[in-house]
Amino acid sequence: GAVVSQHPSRVICKSGTSVKIECRSLDFQATTMFWYRQFPKQSLMLMATSNEGSKATYEQGVEKDKFLINHASLTLSTLTVTSAHPEDSSFYICSAPPTDGTDTQYFGPGTRLTVL
Amino acid sequence: GENVEQHPSTLSVQEGDSAVIKCTYSDSASNYFPWYKQELGKGPQLIIDIRSNVGEKKDQRIAVTLNKTAKHFSLHITETQPEDSAVYFCAASSQAGTALIFGKGTTLSVSS
Question: For A61, what's the count of Cα atoms within 13 Å in the CB-facing half-sphere?
Answer without folding.
Answer: 4
